Amino acid sequence: MPVVPLKELVDAAFAERYGVPAINIVNDLTLEAVLAGASQARSPLIVQTSVKTVKAYGAKVLFGMWQTMTEGIDVPVTLHLDHCPERDVITECLGIGWNSVLFDASTMPVAENQRQTVEVVAEARAHDAHVEGEIESIKGVEDGIGSDTEPRRHSLETSLTFLRETGVDVFAPAIGNAHGVYSHRPDLDFERVTELVEATGVPIALHGGSGLDDDQFSDLIARGAAKVNISTQLKITYMQANLAFLRDVAEPADKWDPPSLFTHVRQAVVDMTVGLAQRFGSAGKA
């Protein structure tokens, strides 16, 4: 299967009530590994890139890696720009070939957020791309974007007006979720997801997925969370796999073989991806 639009993945997941893993990659190794994991699990996959990663590699280089690694891919995948408040980065990525973007204007007044999101949606449509929107910051800092302040939650009517006026394809509400590592089990507002879905039929993006329990995932996915974001878990898996391997080879110090390290880390990320697909119900859906 080729690279497909974001909406094709989330609409199918929304209809059948499973969640598509949306994993933030950090380099070429993690990109290849999550793709391999999705193929092994026979799962659709949303590959996400942060603004930080785009700037570190350069959009053209990063997209070139994506094109090469998805050539001949046998499961449906899509490329998404996560949490981007910078309009010029959105324009660059859409122009190069990203399939969707999250325009993160959550720090703006809702009216200005809405006005600019309408413009981003129009820009995306010109590239046959899709848009995720949000009007509330998700608590926690991720790749330099965000805040540790508890976000203000807007009324249901404010959210519905935003969705109606902007025409975004996916919506990311604040429901007590947070980026980063949870210090305790979060108290999530499950009913808010139900209210939004019943009123609009728009698929929900669940942010701050790393660290939620299986019962929380299952409940939210059943209510319409069709896109499940994973960033912190990928970073932890990647770093811990590196650390464990390097500790094992440090003594005796005559086994310094980078390809062996890469193989070990790759397998850890592949296994993580397969596990996520199984947890979210997307395994076997490709």
TrEMBL record:
Keywords, alphabetical: Lyase, Metal-binding, Zinc
Residue positions binding Zn(2+) 2: D104, E134
Pfam families hit by this protein: F_bP_aldolase
UniProt protein name: Ketose-bisphosphate aldolase
EC annotation from Swiss-Prot or TrEMBL: 4.1.2.13
Organism expressing this protein natively: Xylanimonas cellulosilytica (strain DSM 15894 / JCM 12276 / CECT 5975 / KCTC 9989 / LMG 20990 / NBRC 107835 / XIL07)
Cofactor info, note text: Binds 2 Zn(2+) ions per subunit. One is catalytic and the other provides a structural contribution.
An annotated Gene Ontology molecular function: zinc ion binding
Cofactor(s) recorded in Swiss-Prot or TrEMBL: Zn(2+)
Active site: D82
Residue numbers binding dihydroxyacetone phosphate: G180, G208, G209, S210, N229, I230, S231, T232
SUPFAM superfamilies in the record: Aldolase
